[in-house]
Design a protein that fits this description.
By secondary structure, this protein is of the alpha+beta class. The chain is built from 16 helices and 36 strands.
Length: 704
């Protein structure tokens, strides 16, 4: 049987996007359906069915399918997790209650930590103890483990997390406890910290393991439902899930370690931006993805997305590595470094008790949606504001599938905001957009300036259904000169699912000073991790020639409680390798924090290895090149509000799919396509490259 298609499906808060790639012709087809928050599998299956039906493709001709989903994150946010128990070292049952002394705002006296995912009565301490070198101090009380398993079974838990002190050095007690629990409670899902997060700091390790255990039944049920229905529909494709780190892994692996896919959907967008930047020769890129619920910014430096190990799950408006911590549950797994804020097309505008206009973080989502959808929503949103300002075509939203009601949008802004503020509707609509723009510009700065990078050195790749509407203005505010709008930006994240590789991440704790480190010991540790990674990829059918291994090490100055992750070169690790990595660490510390201390001792905290199974990437198709100018793509002219234009300006409206390669035109202008709208402000020029991408730059006179 010939398989020639790849299918990517990305489930967002408002819409579920599908992208189908023909590997023979390079043709890319897209489809968009409303998400189904009550049961995301319904939207997933509707998207896959629709795109295959519209393209006349039989399911058996799909070679592999990749899914991006936030089902794991949503389960934690909504509290819809499996009843979970925690088994830990005697005396440490309260670590989830104590958590960390981290507050998002130092002087906020009303702040409350999120409640533990495992209530205290289901946290059980077991007599056992290892010392800081992994040596047994107190043997494991095996009968106590059996009793704990029986007790948790009687309490109706569905999952158990096991986290003993120092198990990252010696996992024997945890593995034995897992065996005993399976004997007395075979129905339970067991997660061991030595498998999920084998690193020091017991609270972070316990939190990561508890989240993995708590969402495993939910994720397993969700993925199993999808797989059963796909197989029943004659799909023989390999089924993969996007990981938070930007790689993909199989459905089976995702069901074992769902904590590695908590940022599955947002990571796909960053990978798409990485791919586009690589193809077009841009190694330094900031990705900006604005959908219906949130806006997300990520940074790609030297062709590789930044990845962090500091992340909190369980809050709607959050940031990884850059914002205030303490709102959610920390996890210690690789996550694409994102700043994510509650500013999507469906974000609700409201007036607070002080009479100040605010936007987000709450969203109208897919149900009931913005007021202009006519689906029952009455709250004004960013989409409603853009519609009132003339930036969206009410008859061409989703290619005309959804007719937007301008009057409903106008009334929602008037009733909920304008009357309370004593301002006219257009002024308030523009204010809604500017408030959202300010928040999103701050996100761009958080992901760049706060990381030690100058945004002026980067290209902004903007996508998502709402991203191109705001991107031009955001780039101006951030000082970015070039903005790239890909073809079909509303489904770019789904494309990102199809341009990434199989990936498995491994780590081992080291905790050794750099000046006392034994290079052969480091090399042996990497070899052991490499054997695990190669074996996993071999089981997934990857040839040895297609395997890449990336070595990294977490480093810090002795006494610091945070680390920087440094790459290690390929080849045998020797004293020269460690010296070179140490020098690079000093430079990276200076870039990230503004200082370094080469005279101070540094230490290697963790060794990391990423095993990558390379998958062939689709190629971009050349856009048609036609003689003449841009007039063949002109649809109409309509008034559009621009603050810098003093109000409404007669604006040309272009059909994106009729813009030929090489076309150049000046703003103000609007470019429409079925899944998104691009707004080009006065003083800027748009250029269509050979692949149909729009490049927006300040107008230096070339448009004339």
């Amino acid at each position: 049987m010939t398989t020639r298609y790849r299918l990517g499906i990305d489930t967002g808060g408002t819409f579920t996007d599908a992208t189908l790639i023909d590997e023979v012709t390079g043709n890319i087809a897209i489809a968009k359906v409303p998400s189904t928050p009550a049961d995301p599998a319904v939207g997933f299956l509707a998207a896959s069915d629709r795109i295959l039906r519209e393209q006349g493709v039989a399911p058996e001709h799909v070679g592999y399918l990749v899914h991006g989903t936030t089902v794991a994150t949503n389960a934690v946010i909504e509290g819809n997790v499996a009843p979970t128990g925690l088994i830990t070292t005697d005396g440490f049952r309260d670590m989830l209650e104590i958590a960390r002394q981290v507050r998002p705002s130092l002087y906020d006296l009303r702040f409350e930590k999120p409640p533990p995912l495992v209530p205290r009565h289901r946290c059980i301490g077991i007599p056992e103890r290892l010392d800081a070198q992994g040596r047994v101090v107190v043997p494991l009380a095996e009968e106590m483990v059996r009793q704990a398993g029986r007790r948790l079974r009687e309490e109706g838990v569905g999952a158990i997390a096991v986290c003993f002190l120092h198990s990252y050095l010696n996992p024997d007690h945890e593995r034995r406890a897992g065996e005993l629990l399976r004997e007395v409670f075979p129905e339970a899902v067991i997660s061991l910290s030595c498998d999920v997060a084998p690193e020091f700091r017991e609270y972070l390790r316990a939190s990561t393991t508890v989240i993995n255990a708590a969402v495993r039944p939910i994720v397993a049920r969700y993925l199993s439902t999808i797989e059963e229905q796909l197989r029943a529909a004659d799909f023989a494709a390999e089924l993969l899930v996007m990981q938070s780190s930007g790689g993909v892994f199989t459905f089976a692996a995702a069901q074992e370690k769902p904590v590695f896919m908590v940022e599955s959907g947002p990571a796909a967008g960053v990978m798409a931006a990485t791919y586009l930047g690589g193809v077009l020769g841009h190694k330094d890129v900031i990705s900006f993805d604005m959908g219906g619920t949130t806006a997300k910014a990520g940074l790609i430096h030297d062709g590789r997305p930044r990845v962090t190990k500091e992340y909190e799950v369980g809050v709607i408006a959050r940031s990884t590595g850059g914002g205030a911590k303490g709102h959610g549950y920390p996890i210690r797994t690789p996550v694409v470094d994102l700043v994510e804020i509650g500013a999507g097309g469906g974000s609700i505008a409201w007036v607070d008790s002080g009479g100040v206009l605010r936007v987000g973080p709450h969203s109208a989502g897919a149900d009931p949606g913005p007021a202009c959808y006519g689906w029952g929503g009455t709250e004004p949103t960013i989409t409603d504001a853009n519609l009132v300002l003339g930036r969206l075509n009410p008859g061409f939203f989703l290619g005309g599938e959804i007719a937007l009601d301008v009057d409903r949008a106008f009334r929602a802004i008037e009733d909920r905001c304008a009357k309370r503020l004593g301002r006219d509707v257009l002024t308030v609509a523009n204010g809604i957009v500017e408030i959202a723009n300010a928040a999103m510009t701050n996100a761009l700065r958080l992901v760049s300036v706060q990381r030690g990078y100058d945004p002026r050195d980067f290209v902004l790749v903007a996508f998502g259904g709402a991203g191109p509407v705001h991107a031009n203005w955001l780039a101006t505010e951030a000082g970015i000169r070039t903005t790239l709008i890909p073809m079909s930006p509303g489904t770019t994240s789904a494309l990102g699912l199809l341009v990434t590789d199989l990936q498995h991440d491994y780590s081992v704790a080291l905790n050794q000073r750099a000046d006392r480190l034994d290079a052969p010991r480091v090399e042996r540790a990497y070899q052991e991790l490499a054997e695990q990674g190669c074996a996993a990829l071999r089981r997934e059918g990857i040839d040895a020639a297609d395997v890449r291994l990336l070595r990294q090490a977490d480093m810090c100055y002795v006494g610091q409680s945070y680390e920087l992750t440094m790459p290690l070169p390929n080849g045998i690790v020797d004293a020269g390798t460690l010296t070179a990595v140490l020098d690079a660490f000093h430079h990276a510390h200076d870039q990230a924090y503004g200082f370094s201390a080469p005279g101070e001792p540094a230490e290697f905290v963790n060794l990391r290895l990423t095993a990558i199974g390379t998958i062939a990437k689709p190629r971009l198709r050349d856009a048609p090149s036609r003689a003449g100018d841009d007039r063949s793509a002109l649809k109409e002219t309509r008034p559009v509000w621009f603050a810098e234009g003093g109000g409404f300006v007669d604006c040309p409206i272009f059909d994106r799919y009729r813009l030929a390669a090489g076309t150049v035109f000046a703003g103000p202008a609007i470019v429409e396509e079925p899944d998104s709208t691009t707004v080009i402000h006065p003083g800027f020029v748009a250029r269509v490259d050979r692949y149909g991408n729009l490049l927006l730059t300040p107008d230096g006179g070339e448009s004339r």
